[in-house]
Design brief:
The chain is α+β, with helices and mostly antiparallel strands. The chain has 7 helices and 6 strands, in the order H-H-E-H-H-E-H-E-E-H-E-E-H.
Amino acid sequence: MKFCLSLILIVCIGYGNLAEIQQRCQSNFNKCIIKTHNKLRALHQSPPLVEDSNLKTIALEYSQKMARENKLIDNPRLNELSLGENLGLSYNFKGFDMNKCGQLGKSYAEKWYSEIENWDFIKSKGKNTRHFTQVVWKDTKKIGCGLAIGSNGKKAYITCNYDPPMNGDYSLNVKQNSILLNRNDEEDPDCDFNGSEEF
């Protein structure tokens, strides 16, 4: 079964045990969401991001907070922390398959990046493109992401934090994509769909 995609990605994910998901899928999620960030950043001549343990902790704790409160909302401490942020929410009434957390991470990085369709590279501006610009922002160096599952096991809250955040000249930090994405890259079974784009 598939659900529609919107700004909040609604995905179909198989049933899984909540405790096992929390313990076992975080590593694949982080690996795949960061790997996809860097693959997409390379298209825009932006250097790869390095995973930062402090940012990872902040992101995970905030995802857990959103899961507890059942609320998707920007971290009110972003300015204080001087960090950038992308958030996401995924829902499936059956629960989550802990073997597909990597695919979930990849899908969210790609979903945020898809806002490129609304970006005008000539004018260096766009409507509703904050997620895209943060993914490829050239001056950003570090990233940390976190995934938390809600108490009913049916909602996944996603946070990525970035340092430094978007700040400065968009024309210098969001370059035109001049490299074609190589669809023949070696597949990663933790990140890539195998035949069916279902979680």
